[in-house]
Amino acid sequence: MAVEFITTRIDVPRGRGRQQLNGSVSFQSKVRVANIALRGFLLDFVSSDHHINVVEVTTDFAGTEGEIVRFRVNCQYADKNFDDEYFGHVDVLVIADLRDA
């Protein structure tokens, strides 16, 4: 057994409301067990002068398939009326315990 880490960046496209983005990473060996951690994020309004009401960024483990770990990123960035576009990125840390070769 060997524990390995991969950091990946998920771009948050320009949009409004809550966004759910899918991602995956591939390891060199089959994955025995894995988990996902939020490493960091940047969210920004397309235009300026907003009073922030909601900031949400979460990660969810979505499963493994051989060497591949799948995950989801959920994010929302809004002012009081939830009508402004935002964009950004989310950095995800994928931690996997790999099977012996």
Account of the protein in words:
With 101 residues, the protein is mainly beta. The protein has a single domain, classed as Immunoglobulin-like (Sandwich), CATH 2.60.40. It is built from no helices and six strands. The strands form two sheets. It has a three-stranded antiparallel β-sheet, with no helix packed on it. Strands 2-5-4 form a three-stranded antiparallel β-sheet, with no helix packed on it. Strand 4 and strand 5 form a beta hairpin. The radius of gyration is 16 Å and the shape is elongated. The mean pLDDT is 94.
How would you spell out the order of helices and strands?
EEEEEE
Helix content: under 10%
Question: pLDDT average, as an integer?
Answer: 94
Q: Which term fits the overall shape?
A: elongated
- Main sheet? 3 strands, antiparallel
**Domains (count):** 1
**CATH architecture level-2 label:** Sandwich
Beta strands, count: 6
CATH topology: Immunoglobulin-like
Cα distance spanning the termini: 9 Å
Rg calculated over all Cα atoms: 16 Å
Structural class: mainly beta
Strand composition percent: over 45%
Number of helices: 0
Task: Show the helix and strand layout.
Elements: E1 2-15, E2 19-26, E3 31-45, E4 52-65, E5 68-79, E6 86-98
Antiparallel strand pairs: 1-6, 2-5, 3-6, 4-5
Summary tags:
single chain, 101 residues, mainly beta, Immunoglobulin-like, three-stranded antiparallel β-sheet
